[in-house]
Structures are given as C-alpha cells and as structure tokens.
Amino acid sequence: MAKESSMLSGYLVLWISYFIGPLIFIIGLLKKNKAQIIYGFFAVVFIYGISASKITLFIPLVIYLIYYLYNKYPNTSIVNALGLVFSGLCLFFMAISKSFFLFSAVILMRTFGIAGLLTYQYSEFFKIHEKTYLSHINLVNAVTGGYKYKNSLGVEVSEYFVGDGVTNANANFIATDGIASFGLPGIIFICVLLGLYFAFTKSQISSTNGLLLGLLFIPFCFIILNVGLFTSLLSGGFIFLNLYFIFFKSSKQ
C-alpha cells in the first residue's frame, strides 16, 4: 500500500510539474486571465518547494518568452521562437556563469550538459552489458519478464560509473529507449518512433488549439531530456492531451 501511495505521489508531482501547472499557466496567457497565470505559476513553484527540482522554475519563463515572441512577431513559428529563446538563454547563462555559477550550472548543466554526458555513459555501459530490448518499460516487462537488472537503468549506470549504488542517472529518450534497448541502431528506432508520435500529434492541431499545443510541448522538451519517451508520455501527462484531442477534437482553447 505504501509503495502504491509513493508511486501515485510521484506521478502527481510529475503531472503537476510538466503538464497540469504549465497547462493552467498557458491557458491563462491565452485567455489573458491573470488569476490562472498566477495559479499555474505557483503550482510549478509549489512542486519545486517539495521536490527541489530547480529546472521546473525554468519552464514558465521559457513558455512566457516564447508566447511574447509569438505575439510580438506573429509570423514567427513556435519552432523558430523556441530555438531563439533556448539559444538566447544559453548564451546569457554562459555569459554570467562566472558571477552566478550555481544558477548557470542548474540551467546549462542540468538541462543540456548532463543529457550529453549520460548519453555517452549509456553508450559505454551497453557496449559491454546486456541490452534491455525495451524491457526497462514496466508494461513491456510485465508481458515479457525480460528485464535482467536488479535496479532501474539509471541506478545501474550510475553504479557502474560512480559506484555509490544510490544515484539515479536517469537519461534522455535516446539513451534510455534507444541505446539501452538496441545499442546504436536503437537511436534510429527511437527517433523514428518519436517522429511518428509528433506526426500523430500534428494531425490533432487545429486553428483553435495550435498555440496551446505548441506551448505545452515546451515542458515535454524538458522532460524528454531526462527520461525515456514512454515515461515522458505517461509521467509527463502528454498522453492525456492526445486522448483529449482524440475525443474532443473540435474543442476550443
């Protein structure tokens, strides 16, 4: 019972951080409702307070900056705005890194740098260890029973490189679902799968929900840099968004 409660609370933290809080914040921006903006922002801040996940504080900032660019320059696509904001913020934090080292380290290292480092570590680890063939995914393992490791992938990789047996080196979708599952060919597999998911989601975009979906995929970008694709869809709550638009496709923002 305690294990189920812990799992549920873990899902709730992730759903509020990467889906519910940002969704309320975005709807507030679109409807110019200050109460919803404040409520959505503090929902994310609340999660930071209980989980100390510093990167969650970065999400509303990026969402707002992209929304601002989109309104100020209507011909700018969400993709271009996202690239401009990410590039600008990276350059900004690099410029102030010496004066504000801790703040810059949280943003640059935790969001971007660690993703590259862990991809390398997973690649080295699975050159000499057995591949998972997607059995690290709970649903797949429940059917096949093929997961051979005692701990989660992150803990196993961390134990190999660090040796503490405690740290969970959870990694991005390329490392987790690609390299861990099938080695280097797995990168092509998971990228194609992600492309198909994006194509499916794009088919759900209409004139009434395009900006909402575009902004809501910003937290998806954050979570998929830290966990696998399937975990991102469930733990990040984005599968619920897809299901909503399947059953209520004509709904307005």
Structure commentary:
The chain has helices spanning 2-31, 34-51, 58-72, 78-95, 101-128, 138-144, 153-161, 173-182, 185-202, 210-224, 229-235, 238-247. The protein has 253 residues and is an all-alpha fold. Helix 5 packs parallel to helix 8.
Gyration radius over CA? 19 Å
- What overall form do the CA principal axes indicate? globular
Helix fraction by DSSP (H/I, runs of at least 4): over 70%
Mean pLDDT: 82
How would you classify the helix and strand content by structural class?
Answer: mainly alpha
Oligomeric nature of the chains:
single chain
Counted by DSSP, the helix tally is 12
Query: What is the ordering of alpha helices and beta strands?
Result: HHHHHHHHHHHH
Percent of sequence in beta strands: under 5%
Low-confidence stretches: 1-5
Measure the end-to-end span.
Answer: 38 Å
Characterize the main sheet. Answer: none
Structural key phrases:
mainly alpha, 253 residues
How would you summarize this macromolecular structure in one to three sentences?
This protein is mainly alpha-helical.
